[in-house]
Design brief:
With 120 residues, the protein is an alpha/beta fold. The chain has helices at 18-31, 73-91; strands at residues 3-9, 41-47, 59-68, 99-108.
């Protein structure tokens, strides 16, 4: 835990680097002191089909952080603000179009989450 899912619109490429964004967001998660490095699972999903408003030019980045329930609201807010800042740093130098950046933290029911690790 946690699971971090980044959705990004294809029109941000080639200037946006998803791997760089994942590294910066993982840095935010580690800096929070809430997570063990090996437990963070992050991935980026490219969206080829999307719409911003009523066909206005633009793109977006949205981070969903899935956490086991129990963290304080202030902790989750600080983390999501850090994720937005990390993503913003990935698009600040070459904004070819407007980019909306959002992040949310979602609680997962501890009783409904299972995990197994298979060692090599």
């Amino acid at each position: 835990m946690p699971h971090l899912v980044l959705e990004y619109t294809a029109n941000l490429l080639p200037d946006f680097e998803p791997a760089q964004a994942l590294h910066r967001m993982n840095t935010v998660l580690l800096a929070s002191g809430e997570f063990v490095p090996d437990h963070i699972k992050s991935r980026a999903l490219r969206l080829d089909d999307f719409l911003v408003g009523d066909a206005a030019p633009g793109g977006f980045l949205h981070a969903r952080l899935h956490l086991l329930a129990g963290r304080e609201a202030g902790t989750k807010q600080a983390i999501t603000e850090g994720l937005v800042a990390a993503l913003r740093s990935c698009v600040m130098n070459s904004p070819v179009l407007p980019v909306q950046i959002t992040a949310e933290a979602l609680d997962m029911d501890r009783n409904a989450y299972s995990k197994a690790i298979v060692q090599a």
